[in-house]
From TrEMBL:
It comes from the Bacteria. The lineage of its organism: Bacteria, Pseudomonadati, Pseudomonadota, Alphaproteobacteria, Hyphomicrobiales. Keywords: Lyase. This is Dihydrodipicolinate synthase family protein. CDD domains: DHDPS-like (cd00408). GO terms for molecular function: 4-hydroxy-tetrahydrodipicolinate synthase activity. It holds the Pfam family DHDPS. It comes from Bradyrhizobium guangdongense.
Length: 351
């Protein structure tokens, strides 16, 4: 599948930028798929205004592959979305593992109807950049790719600007999720895409949880041989956006509205720090992100969108002190939540 085969409205949506929440996995106390709450989550994100969904990604738990849930979870999200709304949606499937596995997942996602694959390179830690490019090129022959620069703390591989230039030059790459949580490495990706002459084809999506709003509103000037190229992040694909999503969509629209302007309101700039403070609790920064999935689950549990915090790995849960931090940020930043929106619609989503 080539990106030219994607429906034009969906291709435009991805290119111009949108909100893509990383879809969590709702489980029962027995750690089985909770289809009722899984559907409710999908419906919540769509009614909140998300432009699509990322399913089978880190927030969905990579372990779904080990328990036979990869295809069922992707199918459930796609079917629920198609039955819930007729507006264009960008459906992105997480792809992981060595080349053989990632190819099989790409074919599965493509056959279900996903438009692109978010390619995790965590399995390629011992590979050279040449080998990783060969891996990416092989997967791109099956499905349009969204690149993924994941921070090393949760399994990412350090990659050079030269790598990102070569990656962006792959014809079937349509976007890159930039999530190293590091400004230097973020600039490496931007410089690489610019050097490939691919800024018009490859949409930049933030996954930098420590600078979500700043990434979305500020210009980035890239210099090469005395020539300045100005670029912007177009959208976001974020686990952070799996919670308080209706508010996140509003924040995204505010950021989008100030791009290309000579000034940005100070209150909007300052909001970035408040979002980062919330993220520090949800993603368990104090414990090197150990409780990042369970932290999002806790917010969704409090709202009734999940029954509990259960992860496929029984050892995954909230870290010591994380609940207190979540209590603090939900109290101090209550105006950033979408509790009222969820409460007004929960029974409909669970039906």
């Amino acid at each position: 599948m080539h990106h030219s085969q994607i429906d034009s409205d969906i291709r435009k949506l991805i290119a111009e930028g949108t909100v893509l929440p990383a879809h969590p996995l709702a489980l029962t106390a027995e750690r089985q798929l909770d289809k009722t709450h899984q559907r409710a989550l999908t419906r919540y994100y769509l009614d909140a205004g998300a432009g699509g969904l990322a399913v089978g990604v880190h927030t969905t738990q990579f372990a779904i592959r080990d328990v036979g849930l990869y295809r069922p979870v992707l199918e459930l999200a796609a079917e629920t979305a198609a039955n819930w709304t007729k507006r264009p949606l960008a459906m992105v499937a997480g792809l992981a593992g060595p080349t053989k596995q990632a190819l099989a997942e790409a074919r599965t996602a493509r056959d279900i109807g996903y438009h692109a694959g978010l390619l995790s390179l965590a399995a390629m830690k011992s590979a050279s950049e040449d080998e990783i490019i060969a891996h990416c090129t092989a997967i791109a022959a099956e499905i349009p790719l969204v690149g993924f620069y994941l921070q090393p703390a949760v399994g990412g591989v350090l990659l050079s600007s030269g790598f990102w230039q070569r990656f962006a030059a792959i014809d079937n790459v349509i976007a890159i999720k930039i999530a190293p949580f590091n400004r230097y490495r973020t600039l490496d990706v931007l410089r690489g895409v610019a050097a490939a002459g691919a800024l018009d084809r490859v949409a930049l999506y933030t996954g930098n949880d420590d600078h979500i709003l700043l990434d979305l509103m500020l210009p980035f000037d890239l210099r090469d041989k005395g020539v300045t190229t100005r670029t912007y992040f177009k959208g976001g694909l974020l686990g952070h956006w799996s919670v308080w999503t209706a508010s996140a969509v509003k924040q995204f629209e505010r950021c989008k509205a100030v791009r290309h302007k000579d000034s940005v309101p100070a209150d909007l700039l300052a909001l970035d720090a408040r979002i980062t403070d919330c993220n520090s609790a949800f993603f368990d920064v104090a414990n090197n992100f150990h409780g990042c999935i369970a932290g999002c689950h806790e917010i969704l549990r409090r709202q009734g969108l999940m029954q509990g915090l259960w992860c496929l790995d029984p050892n995954e849960g909230l870290s010591p002190g994380q609940k207190d931090e979540i209590d603090r940020v939900t109290r101090e930043h209550a105006d950033l939540s979408d509790d009222a929106f969820v409460a007004a619609n929960l029974s409909k989503w669970l039906s």
